[in-house]
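**Paired protein data**
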Amino acid sequence: MHIASRLVVAAATATLVLAAPASAQVTFSGFTNGCFYTVSACTPETTPGARTDVIGPLTYTNSTFSVTSFASVAAIGETAATPNVNNLGSISLPNAPLTFDFTNQRFLLNVYFSAPNSTSPTNTNYMAQLSGAVLNNGGAVNFDFDNTPQTFLFNGGSFSLHVNDVSLTNTGGSNTIAVSGFITVKETAVPEPTSSLLMAGGLAGLAFFGKRRRNNAA
C-alpha cells in the first residue's frame, strides 16, 4: 500500500474510533413530588420542599436525588429514609387496623431535574394505577406505573428515565417502601483532540505527497 493511502486509512480510522462517546460520568440532580386522585387528575408541586400526600392509609413522602451514571446507567433506588435521599420518594402503609378499597385510585409522580445543565423538559409526570385493599391488618396495595421511559435532552446528549412498580403489604406491621427508577444515558459523539490531530496530520501528509508528485511530473 502506498504511503499516501496509508495516511488516508489511518486518519479515517482515528476519526471513527476516537469520535465515539467515551461514556463520561453524568450527574443527575433534582427532586420529586406526588399526589393521589380518583377522578380529576391532581397537579403535583413543581418546586422543592418537604411534602407528603395522603389517601386513606397511604402516605407518599417526596425526595431529593443526586446520582452519577456509570457505564451510561444511573440508579435512583436508595431505601426509604427520613428525609428521603436518592430515590423517587417513599410510600408508607401504617401499623393499624384499617379498611380501605383502592379501586379506581391513582397516583401521579412528578420528577424534576435541576441537573445536568439545559435538561429539557425539566420535569415529567408518571401515572400509577392503584389496586388492592386492606382489611383489619391484612391485604396489599399495588402501584402499577406507566413504565414507558421518558426521554430528556441535555447539553451532552439525551437520557431516559424508567420508573419501577411498587407493592406493599399490610399484615400487622408498618411498611414503607421507596419508589425507584433508573436512567440510561446516550451521549452526543464529539471528536476528541487526538482524532482531530491525526486527521490534520493525515491531510497534511496527503498535501505534501500531492505537491511532490506534481513537482516530479514537472
